[in-house]
């Protein structure tokens, strides 16, 4: 179902210290109470239960495969034969790290805390996200999911910047911003925007991590210069570019083209059925409505959570392709009308959207 | 002056679990540890306005259901980001199967 406001399109201000940020606080959209599907406590406890087994298995496969693929890439370096190994290595480095960063940031991947923390730090380095900054930005993303001026992780702002989206399939702009942030943080500067969601006592850690990472990248660049080869950078750094496509492909589907400024994840998040390889890389974050409703549930329990909640959620997109078939036209419509969005239709068994909370968004919709 | 308030019966909470208790306009979380002891804290996470009773109890830790902030529910100690402020705790006693918490 497609929806758009009949009124003149509203220009959005995505700054975390701007007009829409203030409006979100004043209107009660910030830190609001979100809709949750009812699940009995006993079942919820079972779903939330932590274990190390699945994540240890997946981490051995992930890092073990990377080691083998990097070894083969180095062995065949100088010949075209190295390409498939680096392409696969790149996806595990520049895309699988996105979901590992995410899940370990929630602290749900492993039962054992140090394992979560270790994989979190490794994945943050690969995906070029400062572990302190992004822990706090993601906290805000869960508090104020796709609330304009509050959520620092809105991937597609309106009107969509399609060139930016295309460039990010190769990690170009993300890596550029990550590097400029790294240099700024390493210089001892925490931006005004970052200060809105990172507590003061955490800010020195942002700077410390940036300095450690800067030293690693400088050492890698120095080794490349010494060897007269980009091979060291093919192992560290560049895979964030040539392997980014998968995490961008899956990540855009999370909220792309859906409603903003609502407090029901069924309206602003998308669940998509995916193939097993993508689900391994993505660690089941294709169950995205479910993840946002219940972030305590580990990735390996999300299929079970999905089965228990689907009566109350919009029908999932049956494939990645189906998701893009609805999302791309929505992006194009949003170029002309920022208020346009895809309204998710609920099954007859679902509790209706709380019109009182979403009156302005939904009642004015032209369906 | 001590003010003991009946919160629930000991059978109302499973071992290694938590339940919500509202009283006099305030909300609390009552815990039953794996060792079958009872504890009480303020009911809302100190990070944001989220009921801890919807969270997960693991040994002596309560994890907030929204952002996974962790507290030691026996001491109230915040165990790291995104929670930075400790939880207030309350004395608890069990008498004749009733769980009582001391308020004020």
Primary descriptors:
heterodimer; A: 367 residues; mainly alpha; two-stranded antiparallel ribbon; 20 helices; 2 strands; B: 104 residues; mainly beta; Rieske Iron-sulfur Protein; three-stranded antiparallel sheet; 10 strands; 0% helix; Rieske_2Fe-2S (chain B); Rieske 2Fe-2S domain-containing protein (chain B); metal-binding (chain B); iron-sulfur (chain B); iron (chain B)
Write the layout of secondary structure elements.
The complex is a heterodimer of chains A (367) and B (104).
Chain A: E1 2-3, H1 19-27, H2 41-48, H3 53-75, H4 82-94, H5 96-106, H6 113-127, H7 131-143, H8 162-168, H9 172-186, H10 192-195, H11 203-227, H12 231-235, H13 239-242, H14 245-255, H15 265-268, H16 276-282, H17 288-293, H18 302-309, H19 320-336, E2 341-342, H20 355-363
Antiparallel strand pairs in A: 1-2
Helix pairs in contact in A: 3-4, 5-6, 9-11
Chain B: E1 4-9, E2 17-23, E3 26-32, E4 38-42, E5 56-58, E6 61-63, E7 70-72, E8 89-90, E9 92-95, E10 98-102
Antiparallel strand pairs in B: 1-10, 2-3, 3-4, 4-8, 5-6, 6-7, 9-10
Describe this structure in words.
Chain A: Keywords: Membrane, Transmembrane, Transmembrane helix. Chain A: The chain crosses the membrane at residues 59-78, 212-236. The complex is a heterodimer of chains A (367) and B (104). By secondary structure, chain A is an all-alpha fold. Chain A has one domain (2-363). In chain A, 58% of the residues lie in helices and 1% in strands. Chain A has helices spanning 19-27, 41-48, 53-75, 82-94, 96-106, 113-127, 131-143, 162-168, 172-186, 192-195, 203-227, 231-235, 239-242, 245-255, 265-268, 276-282, 288-293, 302-309, 320-336, 355-363, and strands at 2-3, 341-342. In chain A, strands 1-2 form a two-stranded antiparallel ribbon. Chain A starts with a strand and ends with a helix. In chain A, 45% of the residues are buried. Chain B has 104 residues and is mainly beta. In chain B, strands 2-3-4-8 form a four-stranded antiparallel β-sheet, with no helix packed on it. A three-stranded antiparallel β-sheet of chain B has the order 1-10-9, with no helix packed on it. Chain B starts with a strand and ends with a strand. The interface between A and B is medium-sized, with 23 and 17 residues.
